Amino acid sequence: MEFGVCSDKSKAFIRLDPRSKLLLLMAISIIMIGGTTVGIEGVLRIICAAIPFLLLLSIRQYKAATIYLLLLGTALFCEKQVAPYTHGMCNIILMMICGLITRFVAGYMMGWYTVKSTSVSEFITAMEHMHCPSFISIPISVMFRYFPTLSEEYKSINDAKRMRELGHPLKQPLTYVEYILVPLMMSTVRIADELSAASLSKGLSAGEKRTHICEIGIGSIDIVAIIGSITMFVLFLVY
Amino acid sequence: MIEFKNVSYSYNVVDADGNAVDKGGVSNINLTIADGEFVVLTGGSGCGKTTITRMINGLIPQYYKGTMDGTVELDGKDISETPIYEIAKHVGSVFQNPRSQFFNVNTTDEIAFASENQRRVPLEIKSSIRETASSMSIERLLNRNIFELSGGEKQIIACAGINVLSPDIVVLDEPSSNLDFYAIERLKEILQDWKAQGKTIIVAEHRLFFLRELADRLLIMQNGEIIHELNKERISTISSAETEKLGIRPLRLDDLQTDFQHREQSDITITLENFCFSYSDGEHGIDIPELEVPSNSVIAVIGHNGAGKSTLVRNICGLEKKFKGVMRYGKKTLKNKERLHNCYMIMQDVNHQLFTESVKDEAVLSITDASLSEEEKEKKALDILSQLDLYEYADIHPMALSGGQKQRVAIASGLASEKGVMIFDEPTSGLDLSHMKQVSDELIKLRKLGKTVFVVTHDLELILSCCDRVVHLEKGAVMENYDICESNILKLKAFFGKEAM
Amino acid sequence: MEKKFEIKDLITVGVFSALYFVVMFAVACFGFIPIFMVFTPFLCPLVAGIPLMLYFSKIKHFGMITITGTLIGIIMFVIGHPYPILLFCIGAGLLTEVILKMGNYQSIKHCVAGSAVFSLWFLGMVIAFFFSFREAYFASIVDGYGQEYVEAMKSYTPTWVFFAMIIMCLVGGAIGGLLGAKVLKKHFRKAGMA
């Protein structure tokens, strides 16, 4: 799991503000999980299922979009056409799996889109625009910065472990975990210390506001997305 | 102007038994650094030079907790009473470890970071980034993932951030530790620019040769005190023999001496065959159909960044799973798995390869000989530890040791595993003269024990003091492969640039 | 908050939350092997409890764990988990904070209890499968299949599984906390790092 590092504007057909993405995520996760499949709610579900698909296309994530379409299509087909011909346990498992897919996959795909289309700095800037306090925004930037570091550290620890032919994951699970976690934890303590020193000396301070070179803004598509999400909320709650 | 008035400082740390103790620091420092001056601080590890840099950027006393006497003033203002983010406006800092000094993942964000913290207008920051990028010609480094850059490029990004913020004072704490010769050249150019702009520059360093033409003053420290001061004229003329007497790394590389006595050839050779490997991103690959080196010798692997040095040694170790090449060692032919069994690498960051709770256990863990009883294993481990002067630390946790000691623990566990090939990845990066010599002695000792040692290094002094053979890689291929002897010494020095000639 | 957060605290929160999250994630991936799937609510907190204990030992004042909870919630939500995850993460964070506070951020017992309680955020991921989803799902198929069918189906997916998961989380988190305390004593105290 990682956010895009560099925002490449030329690649996307539609650019949404991270704030609209969050609102859409919220709308999709509420409408898809709750609600029935008939009437207005049924229409809303179709719209919510279509949004991630279109957005994935807009950032040229064709593979993800195809997988999503196939998954959703298969699940719907099984639910409507295959399930009625099965019986007992088999039927119940099939229904459950199809139900899970049709209700949850749209949310995960919207998440995938959000992660793929947003750079860390866009996300942080958006958070600060939403008046998110620095005690949330600073740790979250640090987290995203620390994920790749963790993977680098893990790789070297794993190399060292292999070189010494230590710890098999299944034969000695506890030793295996210890030999990976302890050096990783040691690195974390050390890096936290060095990173704090470096950030302080670059003038980062918990109390002061900072500016951002990253540009985000609500455009016309965002307004459509925001009005759309709110309308869907309202319709969903009223009916 | 920076003024140290009778400053003493000691760090408050907690020892292994949970008691608070005072450690290291500096005592009775009186020092005045004028505007626009270029001052270099040097001396053995723990001599207090880093402490001085931390007092200039305010990390001491505001971040590192300790006991401080006396005052440090920056243009008349007491550092301990100025908030760090205020100091950060005037003092830019570059740190030793490029991996942990970044707050952002994206290079452009990182360059802008310090200026953003000072709440400068975004448009203004952006235009200074553009200016900086073109003046330093680093356009290709903008808007990239920092984790894809080399150590040298990371250090350049740190310097670019300082250019954008444009403070009057810059402190650098061992900026060259992780850099190769090219990158050091770049760093030197940047320092030259800053000096020309009239910035006050303070560098704490072990490697000094690239500072010879820049430094106005060189301060040598020991046990927290300034024991020698060299002026500009002395800096430009001092010979390697004299710097060695002062206990510091040389200021010039062209007059380095070496003796060729200890080098004698072994007739068994190690041959690497079909060492071809490429990564999915197409970079750092190697293409070596055949490479022959003498066994039981110390082999330096040199080459510029991205030449494939790490890839080569990783494959010698057998760490890349799909690799097809083989190593012929005398009559044996070793494939990937068997090489993993016969080679041992001491990594650049030894912290990653120490796993147990005591130095002794670390050695015992590597003894794979199943025929030995626990007592025999322990005895053997202690023997090895005493060979490496680690006997007294047998029951200490490896992580409580100093950097050099940790490295020796890693060597000890390599010896305990009885593997024939030992590989060192940049063993002397960031080491002072005495520790560099210690590493060189250890490499010679390993050779006497019959090991074949590969050393990936950018350190000419280390190569001259202990290596027998040089393998020079460039763009993944072997460019040169020669013995170190009188006739080849010029070829070797040529690689290290005009400084060394 | 008794005291304003310092940069050091916020960075500690960031790196340890990342470490905790990654360990959780790694163990959960291991859970794709079917036999282990059932035990993920037990195994994940068990392994992740080890770094969590180190994190607890670094905490100096109120609020840091709640931030960690919030961060995990935000990330889980952004990658597409249904919204209850946010409430569970923040709630578990607050509860843990209170427990740690009672032990003055020193007591090992309280830390172990904290590790157990913190792992309850895990349930935020599955609760939608059991409650809101289940009810809505059954409501949506009741027309087509009839009440009897739905009753039969309900009996196959009992809610007690959810309560079993609560227990697995608590026990896993507590064992993880104990292991963590052992690791701290074995390695970090000796190395002078905790």
UniProtKB/TrEMBL annotation, chain A:
Q: Which CDD domains match?
A: EcfT
This protein's name: Energy-coupling factor transport system permease protein
Q: What is its main location?
A: membrane
InterPro entries in the cross-refs: ABC/ECF_trnsptr_transmembrane (IPR003339), ECF_transporter_component (IPR051611)
Q: Name one GO cellular component term.
A: plasma membrane
Looking at the UniProt entry, the stretches that span the membrane are: 22-55, 61-78, 90-113, 213-238
User: Pfam families attached here?
Assistant: CbiQ
Q: Where in the cell is it found?
A: Membrane
What organism does this protein naturally occur in? Butyrivibrio hungatei
Query: Per UniProt, what is the membrane topology?
Result: Multi-pass membrane protein
Q: Lineage, please?
A: Bacteria, Bacillati, Bacillota, Clostridia, Lachnospirales
> What are the alphabetically sorted keywords of the record?
Cell membrane, Membrane, Transmembrane, Transmembrane helix
UniProtKB/TrEMBL annotation, chain B:
Q: Which InterPro entries match?
A: AAA+_ATPase, ABC_transporter-like_ATP-bd, ABC_transporter-like_CS, ABC_transpr_CbiO/EcfA_su, ECF_ABC_transporter_ATP-bd, P-loop_NTPase
In its keyword annotation, does this UniProt entry include Glycoprotein?
no
Topology with regard to the membrane? Peripheral membrane protein
Q: Which residues form the ABC transporter domain?
A: 2-248, 270-500
Q: What is its subcellular localisation?
A: Cell membrane
Q: Which SUPFAM superfamilies match?
A: P-loop containing nucleoside triphosphate hydrolases
Q: Which PROSITE patterns match?
A: ABC_TRANSPORTER_1, ABC_TRANSPORTER_2
| Keywords (A to Z) from UniProt | ATP-binding, Cell membrane, Membrane, Nucleotide-binding, Repeat, Translocase, Transport
A molecular function (GO) term = ATP hydrolysis activity
One GO term describing the cellular component:
ATP-binding cassette (ABC) transporter complex
- Function, in words: Probably part of an ABC transporter complex. Responsible for energy coupling to the transport system.
Which family is this protein grouped under?
Belongs to the ABC transporter superfamily.
Can you name this protein?
A: Energy-coupling factor transport system ATP-binding protein
Organism, per UniProt?
A: Butyrivibrio hungatei
TrEMBL record, chain C:
Is Transferase a UniProt keyword of this protein? Answer: no
For this UniProt record, the keywords arranged alphabetically read as follows: Membrane, Transmembrane, Transmembrane helix
Q: Which PROSITE patterns match?
A: PROKAR_LIPOPROTEIN
- What transmembrane ranges does the database entry give? 12-33, 39-55, 112-133, 160-181
Q: Which InterPro entries match?
A: CHP02185_IM
Q: Entry's NCBIfam families?
A: Trep_Strep (TIGR02185)
Write the protein's name: Energy-coupling factor transport system substrate-specific component
